[in-house]
Design brief:
Shape: elongated
Low-confidence stretches: 64-77, 79-87, 107-127, 435-443
Subcellular location: Nucleus, Nucleolus
Structural class: mainly alpha
Pfam families: CBF, NOC3p
Number of strands: 2
Distance between the termini: 177 Å
Strand order of the largest sheet: 1-2
Number of helices: 33
Keywords: Coiled coil, Nucleus
Oligomer: single chain
Radius of gyration: 51 Å
Largest sheet: 2 strands, antiparallel
Protein name: Nucleolar complex protein 3 homolog
Main location: nucleus
Mean pLDDT: 78
Strand content: under 5%
């Protein structure tokens, strides 16, 4: 009968190839562990056998008649020596080894202490006399010193094993101690004390260490970049350098590693979010390439997570300002490390909005926007602004807005205004409105079966059916879904923004956040729901009338009100005359000594209030604003004068009858009242724009050109018409183009050309050739012998 074949076959080479690297490593580890455990067991058995042999040899019977002869010393003290000098079992024959094992099993007689007369079963005797037992023990006298024995290899005879011993030579302990002390003294003399390094040597040594660390970081980073999938484990090695313990280079190395890892993650991170695998996906069989990709993704996500935790810990260490036990990094260096960590977090926030743990980064960055350190606060605010500007879909922006809104509410609106100013960078131009979406996205109607049968032939119906099918597929593939998702995200984002703004308007009207709120409302006012318009305008007017606002904040109120009225607010029956009056009154608060930021807001307000609402503006109002703007142009900076004159040019084109201000004759009754704050009743038609003549002699060439253009009536053609580079730009663009922020002339002053001549002309070259010859002839014929008598002519003149 054939033997039963083993069902467990040896795996084929192809199957071994499919086995993952991790499994092979685990198998190898298990194999090594089994070998080690077997080896330990074998060593334990050998140790037991050696112990049995030693016990048999050491317990040699000593006769009672010779009490002076002493027994060997205690086994416990000589255990290590005997173990070294014991018989190695590998050198013995098999018969000897078997005999030793039998002795180990039946060692009761050999191991019994024959020096005692106690029988083997003495424990069973209950009435043993203790004194007699003690008397039978031989006495040992302290006449001779105890001698140590060295056990040699035993000799085998017919009778059995004969142990061999030898006395160990006794050394003088005092001599040994003296020799040891002499050796220690010599070693102390030989060892030179560590020489203290100078500052220069210390710096050179630090430079060498730092260079080595830099090369190591560069080697690891280049290896990861060259092949990320195979070298993903080197990320862990590079990240371990964040725990550098050398105090000379610890801070610098940690900063370099943080920046290097940040750049590496920006380069090797995929453009999608890595999700954890389900149990079903883990159990399914996959190809080798897919398994390799999964291992890379898992390693990348885990190392990215640990890296973010390290950055968070650096920031916490700086916040807590507590030294660690290692004392490698000083308290002063914590801020530098924290700044580098925050910078890396900001870079990752902007560069990887699609990747894992982005929300965790947002939660770390938002509180730092309100940090006491100005540099860190500005760094975080700039990163958030950059994220808002580049976020097209709106998913990342919505996450940041939610966290900021919750943080502002949690701090009871006691935050930096820069946090709310980041809202101005949101890319929101339209929101989801039901009516508009129904009008814009009307579904295309396909022909019914009856219409097709009535109007089309059989072949045409067949083609029409295929065409409609293709159209449906194209519509599904289009970005219509992403557009709807984008509108939905933008609507939700804007709702949170307006909730934050309205809370501050309601509860914290005297907060330093109010200017940022008003500026934000001015930008997004056209997207506010019509239901809130009446209440919002009442709040804005009450804020202006309270007098607690600065001129810039009140300008933002005016701007917000007119943005509301210019959008969906056209349907409302609201008279904004009080806002016109307030702007007219506020204009003279602007001057060259103050900042120019207010002029830009004024130009925006004038564009919304006068140009875009031309049908609702009367001629008297337009004349009053043109006159006051010309007066304002005399005492502001040059770029502000350019913007104001450009606005007047647009108003003169929008309201043609305002050219009567260029005439010095009065129109109608009354006298112009420049101090009156009501533009409708100041009689601006009875004055003239005399300020333009003063501006015509301005030091700035563009101001002079615009003033001359307005004096001529702002013509579109002719010699006084403006060049296209001036006429095609808006007032705000001209204001920004000729800005004086750099404290230089814009445009720069032309350098005067050098009037020095290379060749100096002689006097003869200026004369005519004939005149030159006559002069020479007369000079040569002059009679030098006759004396010159000037007195004769003087006397005749006196008579």
């Amino acid at each position: 009968m054939k033997s039963r074949r083993n069902k467990k076959q040896v795996p084929s080479f192809r199957k071994l190839l499919k086995t993952s690297k991790v499994k092979l490593e685990n198998k190898l580890k298990n194999k090594q562990f089994k070998q080690q455990s077997n080896l330990k067991k074998y060593r334990k058995e050998q140790r037991k056998l050696r112990q049995a042999v030693k016990d048999a040899v050491s317990k040699k019977p000593i006769p009672l008649e010779d009490p002076k002869k002493k027994r060997p010393g205690k086994r416990i003290e000589r255990e290590e020596e005997e173990e070294e000098e014991a018989l190695p079992l590998d050198m013995m024959d098999e018969d000897d080894l078997q005999l030793m094992k039998d002795l180990g099993q039946r060692a009761s007689f050999l191991t019994r202490d024959l020096s005692s007369s106690e029988p083997v079963h003495a424990k069973k005797r209950k009435h043993e006399n203790i004194i007699d037992k003690y008397e039978k023990i031989p006495r040992s006298l302290q006449t001779a010193p105890e001698k140590e024995l060295i056990h040699l290899l035993p000799i085998k005879d017919k009778s059995g094993i004969i142990p061999q011993t030898r006395e160990k030579p006794v050394l003088d302990t005092n001599q040994d101690e003296e020799d040891q002390e002499e050796m220690e003294l010599e070693e102390e003399i030989i060892e030179d004390p560590i020489r203290e390094l100078t500052i220069e040597e210390h710096l050179i040594e630090r430079k060498k260490k730092l260079q080595e660390k830099k090369l190591h970081i560069a080697a690891l980073a280049s290896a990861i970049l060259s092949d990320p999938e195979n070298n993903v484990k080197k990320l862990k090695e590079l990240r371990s350098m964040l725990m550098e313990q050398d105090p000379d280079v610890a801070v610098t190395v940690r900063k370099l590693v943080v920046i290097s890892l940040m750049e590496l993650f920006k380069d090797i991170t995929p453009s999608y979010k890595i999700r954890p695998l389900t149990e079903a996906e883990k159990s399914t069989k996959i190809r080798k390439e897919t398994q390799k990709l999964r291992e890379f993704e898992e390693g990348l996500v885990s190392q990215y997570k640990f890296y973010l935790e390290n950055l968070e810990q650096m920031v916490k260490d700086w916040k807590q300002r507590k030294l660690k036990k290692s004392n490698v990094v000083s308290l002063k260096a914590y801020k530098g490390l924290a700044e580098v960590a925050v910078k890396s977090l900001c870079e990752l926030l902007v560069a990887l909005p699609h990747f894992n743990f982005h929300n965790n980064i947002i939660v770390l960055i938002v509180p730092l926007m309100n940090d006491l350190s100005k540099s860190i606060s500005e760094m975080c605010c700039e990163a958030v602004k950059k994220l808002f500007k580049q976020d097209k879909l709106g998913q990342a922006s919505l996450g940041v807005i939610k966290v900021i809104s919750g943080f502002v509410k949690g701090r009871n609106y006691d935050v930096r205004p820069e946090m709310l100013k980041t809202f101005l960078c949101l890319r929101i131009k339209e929101v989801e409105v039901k009516k508009d979406t129904e009008d814009i996205n009307k579904p295309k109607k396909f022909m019914t079966f009856k219409e097709k049968r009535k109007n089309l032939s059989r072949m045409q119906r067949k083609w029409k059916k295929a065409e409609e099918k293709l159209e449906r597929e194209l519509r599904e593939a289009e970005a219509s879904e992403s557009t709807e998702k984008k509108l939905k995200l933008h609507t939700e984002t804007l709702n949170i923004v307006f909730v934050t703004y309205f809370r501050i308007l309601k509860k914290a009207q005297r907060s330093p956040l109010l200017p940022a709120v008003l500026e934000g409302l001015a930008k997004f006012a056209h997207l506010i729901n019509v239901e809130f318009f009446d209440d919002l305008l009442v709040v804005l007017h009450s804020l202006i009338e309270s007098g607690d606002l600065s001129y810039q904040e009140s300008l933002h109120c005016v701007q917000t009100a007119f943005h509301i009225l210019s959008g969906q607010g056209d349907v409302l029956n609201i008279d904004p005359m009080k806002f016109y009056t307030h702007l007219y009154k506020t204009l003279f608060k602007l001057h060259a000594g103050a900042t120019n930021e207010g002029v830009e807001i004024v130009l925006q307000c004038l564009d919304v209030m006068l140009t875009k609402r031309r049908k609702q503006v009367s001629q008297q109002r337009a004349l009053a604003f043109i006159k006051r703007l010309c007066t304002l142009g005399l005492h502001v900076l040059p770029n502000s004068s350019i913007g104001i004159l450009a606005t007047n040019r647009i108003l003169m084109h929008t309201f043609p009858k305002t050219d009567l201000l260029l005439d010095n004759e009065s129109q109608g009754s009354g006298v112009f009242l420049p101090e009156l704050d009501e533009p409708e009743y100041c009689n601006a038609q009875n004055t003239a724009l005399w300020e333009l003549h003063a501006l015509r002699r301005h030091f700035h060439p563009i101001v002079r050109r615009l003033a001359a253009h307005l004096i001529a009536g702002a013509p579109l053609e002719g010699s006084e018409a403006l060049k296209p580079e001036l006429s095609r730009r808006s007032a705000i663009e001209l204001f920004e183009a000729y800005s004086m922020a750099a404290m230089t002339f814009n445009p720069p002053v032309e350098t005067s050309s050098s009037k020095r001549k290379d060749n100096v002309l002689q006097g003869d070259s200026f004369l005519n050739e004939d005149l030159n010859q006559l002069t020479k002839r007369l000079c040569s014929e002059a009679d030098t012998q006759l004396p010159l008598d000037f007195t004769r002519y003087l006397k005749t003149s006196l008579r």
